[in-house]
Amino acid sequence: MPAAELLSKYAEIAIRVGVNLAPGDRLLIHSSTEAIDFTRILVERAYGAGAVNVDVFWSDEAVSRARFTHGPAAAAESISTASRARLAAFEAGDLMLYVDARDPGALAGLDASRIAAHEKVNREALMPLMAAQGRLETNWSVVAAPSAAWAAKVFPDQPIPEAIESLWAAIFRACRVDTDDPVAAWRHHVASLNARADYLTGREYAALRYHAPGTDLRLGLPENAVWKGGSGGSPFVPNIPTEEVFAAPHRVRGEGVVAATKPLSLFGQLVEGFSFEVSEGRIVAAQASRGQEVLDQLLAVDEGSARFGEVAMVPMSSAVAAERLIWNNTLYDENDGCHIAVGRAYPISIDGGADMSPDELTAAGLNVSSTHVDFVVGSDQLDVFGIRDGGGEEAIITSGEWGFAL
Asked: Could you give the count of Cα atoms lying within 13 Å of 94 in the half-sphere of its Cβ?
């Protein structure tokens, strides 16, 4: 394990910046048996910040795998007790902190359709929670902790103990833990992202154009589109780390092709070398060099899972990208470069969207789905342009970096 001081600072970021816990709050931590020691530090920090109750839900990948290898067919379509408990905790007002320590390939070799079915039924059961999180009505955040399997994939040439230490060190740098005052550093960083979001909102772009090797894509934006920084304008930060400024594309105004530049960990399996062809906003063809079945399952989840719900700008000079790693973890990969999300749009991406019904959001051009999966398209060869109503173009991303200055 890393030095206690660094772990304590990291936990402080998660509690004070991530969920922004206040005295009197209740906190539910969703963690892994791979991250017991760090989770205990989080609990201590939460109580130190004034929490009146902190509980932990533990997950274990061997237990998850057993559902699909030893359980009957009905096990794949059962709503888990953990999902029911999460919903009850949300209804009781608990803040939610998720500790991601997953093995990117934990469910490799299993029937992707069974995994997708289980994901779908549990997402649908948790829709009140997920909708509130998407509207930023309840404080929540995701942080990561190394597991042996994850570290081995990021640093395959190192012995496991060294790989774990290397991954901890990379996480600390990416999350600004190694600064003199990490909480102050985070507040400055979030303010910078919010300033860029305000600038892009003010430009009132009608569409975006992406150009890179394997990518030639145009995505329309809805009227009254709102760009958000990594905190979404809320007093908490849903993802630690975050480097993005994001918006939502119009659900039916998309044409072209787009190629992913990072692997995607999906349903406990890796998808690599994949690309999409888009027509009228819908993904009409998808190809992957690895994980094709898993990718197909994602696009078949519901009507909205074959459309895009988010566009996010991330410079290649970000603290995450500076590590020059293949993270094999969506939390980190999506903050390593520009990304697009398949599935649900965040209602806050349109003026007044937080008060709209699903039908109203659809009519306004936002995608509605039970899923939301980010994939990375960023590289030092990516250019993204904002298109004005009159057809003029302005650089947003140039060769992977911000194309405008504030």
From this structure: 22
Residues 6+ away with beta carbon under 8 Å from 176: 13, 182, 185, 186, 189, 241, 319
- Residue 330's SS3 state is helix
Rounded to 5°, the CA angle 133-139-143 comes to 90
CA distances from 289 to 128, 146, 152 (A): 36, 27, 22
129 contacts 87 by C-beta, under 8 angstroms: yes
For residue 285, the cross-strand partners are: 277
Per-residue model confidence as pLDDT tens digits over 173-194? 999 999 999 999 999 999 999 9
Instruction: Specify the residue for token string 């990518």.
Output: 215
**What six digits make up the tokens of 121?**
């039924």
- DSSP for 284-320, written as a single string: EEEE-SB-HHHHHHHHTSSGGGGBEEEEEE--TTSTT
Q: Which of 342, 345, 344, 319 is nearest to 332 (CA)?
A: 319
CA-closest candidate to residue 262, choices 197, 207, 212, 205: 212
Q: What is the pTM of this model?
A: 0.90
Distance from C-alpha of 135 to C-alpha of 154, rounded to nearest angstrom? 33
The alpha carbons of the chain give a radius of gyration, in whole angstroms, of: 20
Give whole-number Cα distances, 117 to 77, 78, 88, 385, in Å.
Answer: 6, 9, 22, 38
Hey, which residues does 218 pair with through a beta bridge? 209, 255
Distance CA 260, CA 208 (A): 17
35-83 pLDDT per residue, tens: 999 999 999 999 999 999 999 999 999 999 999 999 999 999 999 999 9
Owner of token pair 């990594």: 230
**How far is residue 330 from each of residues 26, 42, 160, 285, measured CA to CA in Å?**
27, 22, 21, 22
Could you give the CA distance from residue 70 to residue 73 in angstroms, rounded to a whole number? 9
* Tokens 């103990």, located at residue: 161
Distance CA 295, CA 287 (A): 8
Of 318, 315, 322, which Cα lies nearest the Cα of 378?
315
